């Protein structure tokens, strides 16, 4: 059961142009993400997918990279293009975020196992929310699952609403979860996903996973307890520096 791991990487970014190439303790962010993907404990091929020649030229010095169309609206669309281009018999495609340089191999394995050992079409991850700041931050996407571990809704809003309780205490009365934006896809459904139009909920929240829910696809959500900093803006590099001081084992 061989998997394809794809790491989409764009140079153009409103908040942090060129961030895949930013240096983190002697290595680029995209190289760190790629090397973590290689450690996943299953048979796989790993590719970076980009539309920028600078990223392509950098990645081929240490790994595999494919140039993709600049017209894609999401990282998943870029992953699907790579899957179609390679035309191999992969059982699943795993879409990692290029701005997660400390992603753990065990987290990638959770996606792989969910796709290969459940009846889900898509797999993703969630992390427990620990603070009011996280819970009410619209940049932190929340997820609600049913008792079988399948996603019911993703939202930038704090869900569920707890009636008759002060909002400052919500996270103490119920375990909320933040969505970790990486996915595993059953390769059999990718041709269908590639042609889905934008859905109503997706347009409202600007969350591509709502397109799949709107169209009836089953998304399995596994829980991880490991939290590492993502890099969305230059200011996040300070958080990365602090993380490496606490966890020097990730600096290598």
Protein model, in words:
It contains 10 helices and 11 strands. The chain is globular, with a radius of gyration of 18 Å. The longest helix is centred in the middle third of the chain and has 13 residues, at 105-117. It starts with a strand and ends in a 6-residue tail after the last helix. Strands 5-4-1-6-10-7-11 form a 7-stranded mixed sheet, with helices on both faces. The chain is of the alpha/beta class and 252 residues long. It has helices at residues 29-38, 53-59, 75-86, 105-117, 132-135, 170-173, 190-193, 200-205, 209-214, 236-246; strands at 3-9, 23-24, 27-28, 44-50, 65-67, 92-95, 122-128, 142-145, 151-155, 177-186, 219-223.
């Amino acid at each position: 059961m061989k998997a394809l791991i794809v790491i989409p990487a764009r140079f153009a970014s409103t908040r942090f142009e060129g961030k895949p190439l930013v240096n983190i303790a002697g290595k680029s962010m995209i190289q760190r993400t790629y090397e973590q993907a290689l450690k996943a404990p299953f048979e796989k091929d790993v590719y970076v997918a980009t539309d920028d020649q600078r990223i392509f030229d950098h990645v081929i010095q240490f790994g595999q990279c494919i140039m993709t169309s600049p017209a894609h609206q999401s990282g998943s669309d870029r992953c699907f293009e790579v899957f179609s281009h390679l035309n191999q018999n992969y059982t699943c495609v795993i879409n990692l975020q290029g701005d997660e340089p400390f992603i753990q191999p065990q987290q990638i394995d959770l996606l792989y196992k969910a796709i290969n050992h459940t009846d889900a079409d898509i797999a993703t991850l969630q992390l427990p929310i620990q603070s009011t700041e996280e819970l009410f931050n619209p940049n932190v996407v929340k997820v609600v699952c049913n008792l079988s571990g399948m996603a019911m809704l993703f939202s930038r809003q704090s869900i569920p609403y707890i009636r008759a309780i002060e909002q400052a205490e919500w996270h103490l009365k119920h375990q909320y979860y933040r969505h970790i934006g990486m996915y595993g896809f059953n390769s059999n459904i990718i041709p269908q996903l590639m042609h889905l139009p934008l859905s109503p909920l997706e347009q409202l929240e600007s969350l591509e996973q709502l397109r799949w829910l709107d169209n009836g696809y089953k998304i399995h959500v596994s829980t991880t307890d490991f939290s590492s900093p993502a890099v969305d803006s230059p200011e996040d590099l300070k958080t990365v520096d602090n993380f490496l001081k606490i966890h020097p084992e990730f600096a290598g």
